Amino acid sequence: MDNLDYGIIGNCRSAALISKTGNIEWCCLPEFDSPSIFAKLLDEEIGGSFEINVDSSYVITQKYEPFTTILITSFKSGENHFEIHDFMPRYRKEGKKYHAPPELVRYFKLISGAPKFSVHYNPKLEYAVGKTESFIKKDFVASLTHDVKFDTIFLYTSFDKKTIINSGEITLKEDGYILVGYNEKLLLPTTDRAYLDLQNTKVYWLNWSNLTPTYKKFNKEISRSALTLKLLSYDKTGAVLAAATTSLPETIGEVRNWDYRFCWIRDASMVIKVVSELGHKNVAKRYLQFIIDLIPDKAEKLQIMYGINKEKKLTEVTLEHLAGYKGSKPVRIGNAAYHQKQNDIYGILMDVIYEQMAKFSVDIENGEDLWAITKGIVWIVSNNWKDADKGIWEFRTEDRHFTFSKVLCWTALDRAIKVAEMLGKKHKIEKWEPIRAEIWQDIYDNAWNEEIGAYTQSYGSKELDASVLLMESYGCVKAKDERYISTVHAIGKELNNDGLLYRYKNEDDFGLPSSSFTVCTFWYINSLFKIGERKKALEYFERLLSYSNHLGLFSEDIDFKTKRLLGNFPQAYSHLALIECAINFSKKESEDQILENLRD
Predict the structure, then answer these.
(1) Tens digits of per-residue pLDDT, 76-110?
(2) Is residue 275 part of a domain?
(3) What's the pTM?
(4) Does the keyword Cytoplasm apply (predicted)?
(5) Residue 80 to residues 73, 169, 403: CA-CA distances in angstroms?
(6) The domain boundary residue, chosen from 210, 243, 267
(7) Range of the domain at 493
(8) 289 beta partners
(9) How high is the pLDDT of residue 594?
(10) In sequence order, which residues have a C-beta less than 8 Å from that of residue 439 and are 6 or more positions away?
(11) 532 within a domain of the structure (yes/no)
(12) HSE on the CB side for 370, CA within 13 Å?
């Protein structure tokens, strides 16, 4: 497979990636960050997969059931036609919390004829370390490993178990199912129960999607992106993952391969802001509780990232036995970046807290906790904003005075002052306003490079950086500010490569970046839109949308030359920025239509 042509299914507990030919090539159970049971994505030889094989006469197509995360792969050869409806169950049980077991279901739906297929079921537990053996039992197939540690998964099916294990040919005469779960089932599955799970899950996602507003333009893209962001949320704690995978390289054959199955405060807070603007307030409430739970000590500094179960230690380990995606080693689990100091996270989190308190006023659940966190954030930022840090892009060597970090320190004070205004805390406003003004003046004086005609990556630098485009989004500068307009044009000239943007072009810890960071192109499009170059922005946006995979999904990066997707997948950052752009264009079209009607 030359592109990341995968669909994602999930149930806000875990997820699986399914190729456009219907093969499961990545899945971790029981949770997102558990060891993989299928990892062909990271090693085609030993990673393990769950494949559906048909002869060459079959035409295979794939789509999502509209407004759901149920993935339908169609296999058709003449009159012989069947579909696989892949999903992870998620729905509310009577009077209970959501039913989201650690399992995936493949529902085989007979459309016509007598189609034939075979199954290649090859689980490799614990990241394929050691041997996984499968045993046929009376009610299920058990696959287990005990080389590193003991682990098992269970397969239930309406088909003959021996035929599946031996990859024998199956003729589909009626609907059937295969269920792969982490736990042994107490109530034996049947085809009828699998069908009921499918329908209940479908209803859940349709109801969830129904809360998302309908937009005049790009509604399909907004809906798919919103569903993808929901799939990257972990219901149990409120954490939001950066992506569902680990070690998919930013560039084939290079070493920028990281584990993204964690909750970065920055990424997650940006996701929450967008998703709550779409009307999904429960996701926001759970995430704010996640933050509250992480900060029991008022003076405790936030890490830049946490495990999805609130783990604070994310030791980075290399899995030497795996070949890596397209041979791109190393394969990493854990992420050493959790040690880093990044001052921007406080502003981004404070922005979310302000948005939620503005929407739900002081009646918001845990309002007092959030006010305590607000005061703590101001205390930390006030004492640290003058310090250098690692910045948004997590440079692993020297600390610098990154412009984006300073802008977000300003944002932290600005939003804290707004919260204080809502709560009538006059003495705090008087105390905090001078600090906000001091940070703004510092940015104005030191981040601007007269020679370049732009706000640059860091103080005293000549290098440009796409993150600086967010100065306007956070309200640090106005869209009509001459300096900002000049910065947008300078970044477009220097970082643009055939319609796609570099994050930056200066050398970092691993050399020169050689692929486009997708979110940066969305930021640039938004900036063009804001400064009034809307036609150009729309052209860039429609071109960028054409680079998504066949299901409208984006990863972290795009190759400049081939336009293939690279990096971890699907990427929350990319989809939240897509939504922001799409909403801007949709709102503008609606406004233009209103004006046109008034003229008529």
Answers:
(1) 999 999 999 999 999 998 777 899 999 999 999 99
(2) no
(3) 0.94
(4) no
(5) 14, 15, 60
(6) 210
(7) 464-600
(8) none
(9) 47
(10) 385, 406, 409, 410, 413
(11) yes
(12) 30
